[in-house]
Amino acid sequence: MRIRKAVFPVAGLGTRFLPATKASAKEILPVVDKPLIQYAVKEAIAAGAEEMVFITSHTKNSIMDHFDRDYELEATLEAKGKEELLKAVKDVLPPGISCVYIRQPEQMGLGHAINCALPAVGDQDFAVILADDLIAGSFQPCMAQMQRVYQEYGTSVLAVQRVPWEETYKYGIVEVEPIGPGLSEIRGIVEKPDPDKAPSNLAVVGRYILTPRIFRLLDKTQPGAGGEIQLTDAIEALMGEQTVLAYEFEGTRYDCGSKFGYLKANVEMGLQHHEIGDEFRSYLKNLTAGWDDDNDTSRTD
Ligand code: G1P
């Protein structure tokens, strides 16, 4: 059992990064030297997926361009003997991987976006990756970890992590019954509850393995939180019919949909970068060396 198709909802406006995202997709914003969407696609491929399904909108041509072969660029790099760069460009989409683009005609929420993937996904189980949740720093990429769970249980799996209680209003929050280390069965799920109404502080992050039954349920899903058709609400209906698991993945998640999370991802992944990591580390050391002295106005204690 292997997931062959991965869906990437990328039609959002990216308003939190305006004006950077005025003419280009937010998923094209780079973390160090690769766009967010490339990390997501790489993660799907590492989990065994072969077909990438992008749910896109009219402002997202940069995503299609990114995953197209650029023969002119490749020829130029080859002629100049820039082997490493040539490899980096060719690696954007390895051989045997295909891309499908589906337009989401209106922005009606994550659930609506996923439902647009039906013609490409059909009756197969599939993965969903939200590119602005960047997950790194583990022994195995997050979706590959989830794929192992899926192989064992053959059912829907959602990636979850503990978040501060005061942040439950930003996430889908689950109520669970543990069945093993880091693995639970979901008993309840609610989209963006206020902290006093949240059933737990276990939040869904942007990784899902879903059965195709979700499409039928999405068809019937009415607008929910924020007036949008929520994937969370369709998952709640799915739980009534099938087992849905919550998996606490290993790794660090960066919320690259927020400026702070995006900066953290760049700093931490910059520090690990093979080319610039060491130089960046000593730069940061020098920069922060004087921050602890008495002149530090940012201290609150
Ligand atoms: C979406 C989902 C939410 C999930 C979150 C993870 O919300 O609706 O359930 O917890 O992604 O990032 P969004 O961040 O698109 O508002």
How do the helices and strands line up, and which of them pair or pack?
Elements (H helix, E strand, L loop, with lengths): L4 E5 L20 E2 L2 E2 H11 L4 E6 L4 H7 L3 H9 L3 H8 L7 E6 L6 H6 L2 H4 L4 E4 L3 E4 L5 H12 L2 E7 L9 E9 L2 E9 L10 E9 L2 H8 L10 H9 L4 E5 L3 E4 L3 H13 L5 H12 L13
Parallel strand pairs: 1-4, 1-6, 4-5, 8-12
Antiparallel strand pairs: 2-3, 6-11, 7-13, 8-11, 9-10, 9-11, 10-12
Helix pairs in contact: 3-4, 8-9
Bound molecules: 1-O-phosphono-alpha-D-glucopyranose.
1-O-phosphono-alpha-D-glucopyranose binds next to strand 11 and helix 9.
CATH topology: Spore Coat Polysaccharide Biosynthesis Protein SpsA, Chain A
| Strand line-up across the major sheet | 8-11-9-10-12
Order of helical and strand elements: EEEHEHHHEHHEEHEEEEHHEEHH
Average the pLDDT over all residues and give the rounded result.
93
Query: Helical residue percent?
Result: 25-40%
Largest beta-sheet details: 5 strands, mixed, barrel
Strand content: 15-25%
Weakly predicted, low-confidence segments: none
Name of the CATH homologous superfamily:
Spore Coat Polysaccharide Biosynthesis Protein SpsA, Chain A
Instruction: Please tally the helical runs, counting DSSP H or I stretches of 4 or more residues.
Output: 11
Number of domains: 1
Ligands (ions, cofactors included) = 1-O-phosphono-alpha-D-glucopyranose
